[in-house]
């Protein structure tokens, strides 16, 4: 067999890296298995975007060593506004691939909440991590990018909320890229046990341009029976990154997973956000807002897959595209046989701001059960001239009227983000990008 | 501030190639309240849309001026900033933009950069006017007209009128779809605006509103023109006798311009 995947690292390197990390044997084994399978597994095929020429494998260095931050003062200026330590001190900051700042309240520690970097978790809570890491969420043999991720995972966080624990303050993670050679094979694993409740918000933020960076990010959210996970994210990786980002949820009986995703990368991006509604009465709500500009090509697939009786899934996607950029929205509501009384709703809208920009919204309903409800709305178009007329008739300039309509169109995610600083940051990023 | 004058001369307006207004003449001055009445489909709403600059309406001839300045030369927002205001029959819904954010933008659009209205002052003003119009407090944080009932939308138009304080306002069927309590509140708002510097053009096909707001002048539109003008007594006669006597007097069979207004 010929090698189709030209990787920047060898198997030996992976084993050495795993050893240096003091990883448990199962993780080393998982990496090896994934690595061995690489060539046999096909690439994912995001609908309507051809990615065979995209660079997911060639990077300058697998791991960049960085200094930890000794104090809050040392954080980059772009990061400080995201954090309010007085209101929220449950925080993990990763600098490139290095865990660089930790904080978790004593109260949460006492309740058994675990929040730490992925490799510390793998060492200290090996059984727990093994039980969930790339098992019921994203499987390493799903496609080549998942396998590549499993083989090369080089950072991330683990959040564990025990049974019946309600975490009132949001849990915050910030992944900073401040080195042009950084490669992100970042994995976030969130496990919410029965009847628990947690809000998590993460930022991927670049403070420097990337030198042909590769980002292969996987997040798994496991919400067990009657658990409630609210997940927020703002991605702002720089233009040099080619990004594959997969955020996956698995909801048990009566569990709820709510996603609020501000997908604001400046580079080519493939995003997959899938929620499995496994349990009866489970609930998934996913809101995404995106902006495409420059020469960016982006594809956003959002799926909710219903297995449970009476499961409810809601997809909302709003995108703005300008310059020569392209965005593709694929929204899939899938109701499996047996999931009676399920409800699958989705809305996908794209606003096109320039002649050469392209947008596509593909709503798909796949229904294998009779007694269900489902609906979809999709639109691709320009800013409504009647909305502009109305705003301008109050004296607002055309430029400001457009800005109001566009930012309003992207507001659903901004409003849902749990941390004030992150909310503000997304609003500012949107303002800057659509201007 | 001094009184302004809106002058409309021989205005012809088309939509998608079809002529709706066929020579309208009208002058509204500060201190005056005019009512334009007429059955449906006679061009009343077209007149209001043409004055404000609705993108679908094309002025084919005639003129509109505001204190001598050519309104037709101005963009919609410029028209608003010289002092024109249109309370719309069907206001747009704008998701994600709160009523308060919108109104603040509208007020600041009239002020110099660096001289924006302070947040506190703005909130005080808005609270005061909302209370006057008996609007519930949450209306300021709701998205602009999104999910508003018919009556809430009309009140919200009057709220904007009171906050923006234009020189000449056109109210396009502000009374349609209102119950009697809402009608009273809306009228209260308009009467509050009355004064030497404020001119108003009320477009309606019900006399009902004019029970609460006494107009100085009443005009009747048919076939895309003003066919009769008079004082408040004209509105009273229309209320008791309808429009047929005018049609007979002028020999009009079909009063419409073949287009629903």
Automatic annotation (TrEMBL), chain A:
Alphabetical GO biological process terms: iron-sulfur cluster assembly
Domain SUF system FeS cluster assembly SufBD N-terminal: 10-172
Transmembrane segments: none
InterPro entries: Fe-S_cluster_assembly_SufBD, SUF_FeS_clus_asmbl_SufBD_core, SUF_FeS_clus_asmbl_SufBD_sf, SUF_FeS_clus_asmbl_SufD, SufBD_N
Pfam families, sorted: SUFBD_core, SufBD_N
Domain SUF system FeS cluster assembly SufBD core: 175-409
UniProt similarity note: Belongs to the iron-sulfur cluster assembly SufBD family.
Alphabetized NCBIfam families for the sequence: sufD (TIGR01981)
PANTHER family from the UniProt entry: FES CLUSTER ASSEMBLY PROTEIN SUF, UPF0051 PROTEIN ABCI8, CHLOROPLASTIC-RELATED
Name the record gives this protein: Fe-S cluster assembly protein SufD
Organism: Peribacillus psychrosaccharolyticus
From TrEMBL, chain B:
Family matches, as InterPro entries: AAA+_ATPase (IPR003593), ABC_transporter-like_ATP-bd (IPR003439), ABC_transporter-like_CS (IPR017871), FeS-cluster_ATPase_SufC (IPR010230), P-loop_NTPase (IPR027417)
Annotated PROSITE patterns: ABC_TRANSPORTER_1, ABC_TRANSPORTER_2
Keywords annotated in UniProt: ATP-binding, Nucleotide-binding
Organism domain of life: Bacteria
Gene Ontology MF terms: ATP binding; ATP hydrolysis activity
Domain ABC transporter residues, every copy: 6-248
Family: Belongs to the ABC transporter superfamily. Ycf16 family.
Protein name per UniProt: Fe-S cluster assembly ATPase SufC
Phylogenetic lineage: Bacteria, Bacillati, Bacillota, Bacilli, Bacillales
